[in-house]
Amino acid sequence: MAVFLYRMGRTAFRRRWYVALLWVVLLGALGFASTQAASPPEDTGSMPGIESQRAYDLLQKRFPGASQSPNQATARIVFVAPSGEKLTSSTNRAVIEKLVGEAAESSQVQAAVDPFRAGTVNKAASTAYATVTYKAASKDLTDATKNNLQKAVDEARHAGLTVDVGGPVLADDAAAGGSGELIGIVIAAIVLLVTFGSLAAAGLPLLTAVLGVGISTVSIMALGSTLGLSTTSSSLASMLGLAVGIDYALFVVSRYREERGHGYSPQEAAGRAVGTAGSAVVFAGLTVVIALAGLSVVGVPTLTKMGLSAAGAVVVAVLIALTLVPALLGILPNAVLPRRIRKGRDTGARTGDNAGTRWARFVRRRPVPVLLASVIGLGIVALPVLDLQLGMPGDESKSTATTERRAYDELADGFGPGFNGPFTVVVDAKGAKYPKSAATSVAKTISATKGVVSVTAPVFNPAGNTAIFTATASTAPTDEKTKDLVRAIRAERPEATAESGATFLVSGTTAINIDVADKMQSALVPYLAVVVGLAFLLLLVIFRSVLVPLKAAFGFLLSVLSALGAVVAVFQWGWLADLIGLQQTGPVMSTMPIMMVGIVFGLAMDYEVFLVSRMREAYTHGERPAEAIVTGFRHSSRVVVAAALIMIAVFSGFVGAGLALIKMIGFSLAVAVLFDALVVRMALVPAVMALLGERAWWLPARLARWLPRVDIEGESLSRTPAAEAEPAPVAEAAHR
To answer: pLDDT (tens digit, 9 = 90+) per residue, 99-125?
Structure first.
């Protein structure tokens, strides 16, 4: 492996212009293909294996054309009368009817009915709502359509009514990170500049990472219609592609500078950098691909496609690090070097103490206190994970400054907390002798369930064998009591079926969110087991050790659990919520923990492979285990910390977003990288390695004969003949 990659790096260096041109042409060709390809399909959000999805599928089959498309935009206009007045007064009624009439004037409106005809006025006549249904998705609505609705709303407000609009039609599409994201990228650039002391060395990882993300994105767009990839498939691919792209290029460039410091010529240094750091890049990339491909075990098509798309982005990042990075080093062989070497003031590589070696020696002298402090500290932070509640936060999680949040609160005040998330009950009476009486019996059974405040009359399909009705809970959609109520209603199904001969399924937005949360929670442990198990086998091959992979897996679990604990403390309990501008606490987004595991696992294994492979390299070259720890930190700790700080800065940029969901993703990733890189890899890893000593590299003899040798340390490079393999004087090499 090392020799093959060494030759690849030298070839890319020598044929640098051809390699660079090839990647640019590839980007252009894929970009052109993406413009010619059919539009990717909309993400349907299908979730096989859950009851609410089965209910939706049955509804589509038995009520053809009756249900609204999931991508069809709707606006719920909420009216609240002034204090002491009623909406049914002639003046207020005229204002409402005028607003609904004006809102319906747009050509994109399919239907709009005022609340007096629809019967959507509460008993006190203080609150009412009208639903406007559009022919297109929210993103396809024209500015004229939105402005028409906004103008009608403003006129009603001027007449004295409180009017707010729920739904995405007038929602502010907050930027993912806004200025915070830009600040994060600027901080990343500063970290690279401080780490390398060279603009070229700082810019090269950013340039290659952006190029890789561009290639991955246009590839997904080009293949979207063919492979069924929705527009959401590129989100995880872009985020992770950027993260690992910077990391992989950073490690290759760092190793190139180190080899140049040892006196090797530019071409030889590039070959050795790819042969050593590139080997680590390949196996680190494999661990990431395992984590992302493992999303398929969850059984959610959207997550599977996102994972495989992101895995493709990681493969592109690896290929760029192995080919384009050495090619660019060939174009700028000296510009990436520190000023001291470029000006010939250094006579060799610096092998003295740095902050990494001093820290490693400190940990080596006190491994037990450092280990206990790391484990206990992360364990305490992880404790809130015991109260983890998964869900899909909606308008209730938005700022009270938004019209969607105000509409949500007004409906809850006027119609009850459960009004914003009613259950849709689908009664399958195909096997019942008397379908109508069977549906009525089911409705009475559910109506009598404690926690249900109202049930509508069943509505049958034309065939008369299926009915639907809605049930409203007394508690809010995200309340834990609502989850218990859904389970209680479903538990009544056997008895109801025995009495009426009809069965029923519970669906609706609230039930879907509950089912998705349960599915994600039950899939989290199997997903972790598959990912960590496969990664253990891969790390076993890389390090030829049993205990090192175990330590890596244990550290990763600690960092993930502590990050989830921090998310629960902030987003569920409200700790430090004001500090990050969080308006409302609530459940953790259902898919966030699994997505976080996939992303953080990739970055964690990057740091593990790059740090421990340098220890392994020193050990295989004859150093004692204790000294190998120090050597590994001397060469890798600074770069690993820089890579982690870059990711923390980039992810922290998303914490400044206006949407709670974006805040949650950015916060969780930033905190997870912080814990994993700066606590687990920088403290727990050297402490465990120091305690294990020689045993860290123990491998049973029988297993040693069976495992393949991959030579990630580049030991075989010392036996590889090359014309430029002899070290050249540093000053001479720097001026070639």
So the answer is: 999 988 888 988 888 899 988 999 999
What would the DSSP string read from start to end of 651-678? HHGGGGSSSHHHHHHHHHHHHHHHHIII
How sure is the predictor about 89, in pLDDT bands with cuts at 50, 70 and 90? very high
Rounded to 5 degrees, φ, ψ at 88 are -80, -5
Q: Which of these, 266, 265, 250, 261, lies nearest to 333 by C-alpha position?
A: 266
Determine contact, residues 426/55, Cβ cutoff 8 Å: yes
CATH number of 74-166: 3.30.70
Contact (CB, 8 A) for 281 and 252: yes
Distance separating the N- and C-terminal Cα atoms of the chain: 29
For residue 686, pLDDT beyond 90: yes
| Spatial separation of the C-alpha atoms in residues 732 and 91, rounded to whole Å | 90
685/679 Cα distance (integer angstroms): 9
In this prediction, residues 695-702 reach a mean pLDDT of 88
Amino acid found at 467: A
| Rounded Cα–Cα distance for residues 74 and 508 (Å) | 16
pLDDT tens for each residue of 357-412: 999 999 999 999 999 999 999 999 999 999 988 887 777 777 778 888 899 999 99
| Sign of CA pseudo-dihedral 396, 398, 404, 407 | positive
Number of H helices, E strands in the chain: 26, 11
600-639 burial code (b ≥16 CB/10 A, e <16): bbbbbbbbbbbbbbbbbbbbbeebebbbbbbbbbbbbbbb
What's the pTM value of the predicted model, to 2 decimals? 0.79
DSSP 396: G
353-399+520-699: CATH topology: Multidrug efflux transporter AcrB transmembrane fold (1.20.1640)
Answer yes or no: are the C-beta atoms of 438 and 502 closer than 8 Å.
yes
How many Cα atoms occupy the beta-carbon half-sphere of 625 within 13 Å?
Answer: 15
Report the chain's mean pLDDT, rounded to a whole number.
Answer: 84
Cα Rg, the chain, nearest whole Å: 30
C-alpha–C-alpha distance, residues 556 and 462, integer Å:
56
Q: pLDDT band at residue 175, thresholds of 50, 70 and 90?
A: very low
* Cβ(125)–Cβ(80) below 8 Å: no
Distance of alpha carbon 66 from alpha carbon 233, whole angstroms: 29
Q: In Å, how far from its chain's centre is CA 317? A: 18
Q: What angle do CA 291, 296, 297 make, to 5 degrees?
A: 90
CATH H superfamily, domain 1-36+198-338: Multidrug efflux transporter AcrB transmembrane domain (1.20.1640.10)
Domains 1-36+198-338 and 74-166 share a fold: no
What pLDDT score was predicted for residue 4?
87
Q: Compare 140 and 347 and report the one with higher pLDDT.
A: 140
CA angle 683/685/686 to nearest 5° reads: 75
- Could you tell me the pLDDT band of residue 490, with boundaries at 50, 70 and 90? very high
Locate the domains of the chain by residue range: 1-36+198-338, 74-166, 353-399+520-699
